[in-house]
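User: Can you model how beta-D-fucopyranose sits in this protein?
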Amino acid sequence: MAKATYSFPRGFLWGTATASQQAEGQNINNNWSAWETQPGRIREGHKAGLACDWWGGRWKEDFDRAKETGQNAHRLSIEWSRIQPTPDRWDEDALDHYRQMVRGLVDRGMTPMVTLHHFSDPLWLVDRGGWESPETPALFEAYTRKVVEALKSYVSLWCTINEPNVYTVCSYLTGEFPPGKTDLNATSQVYINLVKGHVLSYKAIHEIQPAAQVSIAMNYNGFEPSRPWFFLDTFLSNFMTSNFNYAFPMALKTGKLNFAAKRTSIPEAAGTMDYYGLNYYTVQKVAFVLKPKDMFFRRFFPEGSELSPTGFIANRPDGFFKAMQFANSFDLPIYITENGVEDPEDTFRPKYTVQHIHQMWRAVNYTYPIRGYFHWTLVDNFEWERGWTQRFGLWGLNVDTQERIRRKSVDVYARICKENAISSDMVAEYIPGLLPVLFPD
Ligand code: FCB
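Assistant: Here's the modeled complex, given as structure tokens:
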């Protein structure tokens, strides 16, 4: 096999991504903590509980782990319900807690990227209609200002909203997330309000910190027609691609939101992305089915796909390249804000990770302006409606004892971060089966 090193540009950011509700623990004032008390909402009745106990202070040891294994960046999120526990109160202690966390990163020589909204909403906001309400964008702006004023000495890389597409579809169309609605009108309204909320937040951040880099993190799910010769499959996969993958970021580019066959002009949204934040996990086939109750389609991984242990993700690094191609069409710097796989035994993750990072290396060499990569995630965390049944951490977590379990992936990723490269030596040591794929003679 060839001996080679696939290097990344100097200053490339290598980190992991996390979210408040999934890692902090002890969140009792948001819609997810309420949701998990309802029977049947979370697999096996799991609860977030202490999660990774970051609110109890274990972020320090986990940031040490990240630092010691070569990471120079970290993406985390702020919990709105902690900062603003009731509409008329700001919690300065909570702001201070986050200030210590981001300072903790800077002290370790790591660049923080801070997300302001990662799926969870304060209960009081939900009582006022959540993101269906036209008042919410302005409330989000007020919360943004509070956070940015508090953290601006340490943070200049901001993500306003994580995966507005996943949030909206799962909360208002498929009903897997709270409030569990299946209502197309509500879905469209929430999409519009999220665009507006992002815009107000984007502008507020720039007012406070003119040099800030602000954007969203967009989930890109590769859709492929199951039968490419069948126009209904092709129509459906194109429809999903444009509504799910394209609509939101295009609105932030052009000021026009084309979603669910409706065109909404939001001119103030044009030009409100400073970078493209890309979350990528997988590709799915789409087929037309004659079943109105399934909305006439089926999504699935074809037989023979290399699937993750709980069947959640198919290993499709080529789909990652396509997603980066789309991201590149925006002519902005690109951050890979999430990518990873659930795998408790860690037999699949090393391969998945290296193959995806290899595609990112290809994209960098196609001169796509990719500036960093945040692996999902650092330590096993609470995976929304899938609870603890999915383990995405480089480190495993014993939820009862809080013990961290060092997986092989820690060392694989550490080698990549420290060498700023994928080397054939590393692959030979950890994933020899990949050598002929990545380093053919
Ligand atoms: C993404 C979410 C993130 C995590 C991963 C597995 O859609 O942004 O919080 O749950 O999926």
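A couple of observations from the model: The two ends are 5 Å apart (CA to CA). The first strand starts at residue 5 and ends at 7.
User: Helpful, thanks.
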